[in-house]
Every structure is written in structure tokens, then in C-alpha cells.
Amino acid sequence: MKIFKFGGASIKDADGVKNVSEVLKITNQKNLVIVVSAMGKTTNLLEKVVAEYLNDNRNKCKEFVSEFKEYHLEILEGLFENRNHPVYEDVSKLFGKMASFLDVNKSKNHAFLYDQVVSFGELVSSTIVSAYLSEIGLKNEFLDVRKCIKTDANYRDASVDWEATQKKIQKKVSANGITITQGFLGSETTNNFTTTLGREGSDYTAAIFAYCLNAESVTIWKDVPGVLNADPRYFTQTMLLNHISYREAIELAFYGASVIHPKTLQPLQRKEIPLFVKSFLNPTAPGTCVGKGVTLDPQTSCFILKKDLVLISLSSLDFSFMMEDNIGDVFKWLHKHKMKVEMIQNSAISFSVCVNDKFNNLEALLAKLREKFSVKWNENVTLYTIRHFNTAEIKALAENKNVLLKQESKETVQLVIKE
């Protein structure tokens, strides 16, 4: 049994879905679980639906819902000439369920609403992909992942109930044949409401299935040749990494390498299941393998950047030391306001933290911090992380830039830059 995961870029249109079928024919794997994301930028579009719904702007909300429908109907028409094909009715039912939820919902809880609405992206995409593969002779079983992956009720970033999930996956997934399911989604154990595993959680879904099924490998199909040592959108002369150890890959993911979701690697490492990152545009190329062995091949510097962060600098109002009690309060408030901490640095009387304000709670956090500290902050900063760096690279990166903070260890240097 192997696990394949296809992201939104691979199925962004009808030609993309057809290309997935070609990848499956070329790889010729008979026993597969295929995890699919929402098509293209659908998640972003459904996030707009949620935002306008909560703003009581129902006309704008309906406009985005219509755009969601039209986008997928266009893909259907590019795949199925027969408008009487059952997949049209299946997709229409999903549209109807989303509309019905928006009509009857009374909750104003953003995270709850988000998961119920955004999940339709994966449900529609997997329905279309499954139907198309069946249409061209690639027999498969459709699986609603919410019946398998059970979680707590921490909407938008749910934690997996591993014991319950493993039992259900092993019961519902056949060891033979092809199963099509959704990434990113689960359901909470008490009321079965839909949950999500965090953005880019489809990679994590693939790892969950691999762990529970003792899979031979996981392959993530991307629009890049594999894991590169830097994001080609921001860096020139990037290099393909042929092999990365689990430990190094976890380090890169922790610092924000966008190709691999941070939570994906941990279950794979526990059972030493290799992870391959390959190009769906060139499926016969070797790509990158993450697994046991050498730390990095080739041995080279790796560059990671995170944009649109906030650097918060604190000092005590009475010039007392920033000791455990003060720092403990800071982390308690960061956790309460759901700030993702990217970097910290402290001295005797100051404490700096670079955070990702993914839930737009910055103003509330700053108000709380001002009760106890002198507070300064910079918004829209960029955090550069370089693994296995050399001095010349750091000098070149910082040249003509406003470096607000620098932190260096044996293997890693981080720069917070206001660009």
C-alpha cells in the first residue's frame, strides 16, 4: 500500500485532473490511497464566503458561492461531455448542503463556521476526481475522510485522536485497489462536526493514512521537481535536494519550508516510512526522498523566509529583570491570542518575539501586554532562516536591508528584516 497526495495546483482545472490520471497510469500502482486537496485556490475563495457571511454581507457571500459553483462546473464540463452523468448530481447535492448550512446556521464562531464551509472544497474536488478516474477505467472507492479521522473540537487546527482514527482507517480502507479521499478534513468525536487540521493539512492527512496502514511510502505530487534549498519565487539559483533526513526535514519544516507541512513528518518518522516529493509535470523524475540516511544531499545552505510577521519588543515598566514570571505571562497571553511564535530573543530587561498573527488578534494582544510592559512592535516584517549557512551568504542577504534582529547558532541563523 502506498499513499499519493495531489494538491490544489495539480487539479486546478480539467487538464490538471486528466494529468493526474496520466501520473497514475505511468506509476501503475495498484494499491493506493489518493488524498486530494481542494482545486486551485478554492480554499481562499471559501474563506471569503466565511468572511462575508460573518459580516452579514449576504449579497457578497452569495457572489462568492456562485463563483465557487461556476468554477467547479467548468471543470466538470471539461471532463464529462454527458451532462446527465451522475457526478453532476453528486456535486449539485454538495452545493445544496453548503447553501443549506449557510441558511440554517446560527453560530458566529468563526473557527467552527470556517471548518463547516471550507471543507466543501475538498468534498467537491474528491467527488470529481473519483468520478473521472472511474469514467476512464481507473476503478476506485470514494471515502469520506470524516468517517475515519477523528479529532478534538479545536476547529481550524484540530488534534487527531490516533487510537480512534487508526481503528476506523484500518476498518474502512481496503488493502487492495485505489481509494480516493480528502485531505485537510476530519470530524470531532462528540458531535461529528467537520474539523480541519490546519492550512496545508492535506500532507498531514497523507501521513496519517500512511501511519495507520503501515504504508510502504508517501508521495506528495507538486508543481516543483522536489524539495529545493530555497523558494524560487524569492531566490535565484535554487538547488534540488536529493535526500533529506527526517531530522533535517523536521527542522526545515519547523522554520517554515513550504513544501512539507510541519506535522507531516512526525508520524512518518515513527515508522520510518519514506516521503517522496515529486513533480506531477515530470512523474518519472526521482524528486526528493525524506527518510533515513545522510542529513542532506547535496550538502548546501537552505534558505527559508516567512513574510507578513510581527516583531514585538517588550521591556519591564520598572526596569526589573525579564525573568521566568514575566516571560511566563508573555507566553500565556501569546497562547491565549493564538499567536504562532516564530523566533524569540531576550536580555536582562527586554524580550523580543516574532509572531504570525494568523487569527488577527494583534490589537487584543498588544492591549494585554501594555498592562505590564513597555511595548514596541513592527508589523509586516520578514523572517529569514538559513540552515547550514556561511558568512558570505549572511552578509549578502543582509546587505542594504534594515535588520531588526539577528540570532545565530551553530547550524542556523535567523534575521528579522523590515523591507
Could you say what the CATH architecture of the largest domain is?
Answer: 3-Layer(aba) Sandwich
**Terminal CA distance:** 47 Å
In total, the number of domains comes to 2
Overall pLDDT metric: 94
Please provide the ordered H/E string of secondary-structure elements. Answer: EHEHHHHEEHEEEHEEHHEEEEHEEHEHEE
* Shape estimate: globular
Query: Which percent range describes the beta-strand content?
Result: 15-25%
Count of helices?
Answer: 12
Q: What does the largest sheet look like?
A: 9 strands, mixed
At the first level of CATH, what is the class of the largest domain?
Alpha Beta
Relative helix content: 25-40%
Q: How many beta strands in the DSSP annotation?
A: 18
| Strand-pairing-aware structural class | alpha/beta
**Regions with little confidence, pLDDT below 50 for 5+ residues:** none
The CATH homologous superfamily of the largest domain: Acetylglutamate kinase-like
Pfam families: AA_kinase
Family: Belongs to the aspartokinase family.
Protein name: Aspartokinase
EC number: 2.7.2.4
How is this structure best summarized?
The protein is an alpha/beta fold.
Molecular structure report:
This protein is of the alpha/beta class. The chain folds into 2 domains: 2-222, Acetylglutamate kinase-like (Carbamate kinase); 302-418, VC0802-like (2-Layer Sandwich). The protein is 39% helix and 25% strand. The protein is built from 12 helices and 18 strands. It has helices at residues 14-27, 42-54, 58-79, 86-104, 110-135, 162-172, 201-213, 246-255, 265-270, 324-336, 362-370, 391-398; strands at 2-6, 32-36, 141-142, 150-151, 178-182, 185-188, 194-196, 217-222, 243-245, 275-279, 288-291, 296-297, 302-316, 340-346, 350-356, 373-387, 402-408, 412-418. A 9-stranded mixed β-sheet has the order 3-5-2-1-8-10-11-9-12, with helices on both faces. β10 and β11 (288-291) form a beta hairpin. α1 (14-27) crosses α3 (58-79), α2 packs antiparallel against α3 (58-79) and α3 (58-79) packs antiparallel against α4. The protein is globular, with a radius of gyration of 23 Å. This is Aspartokinase.
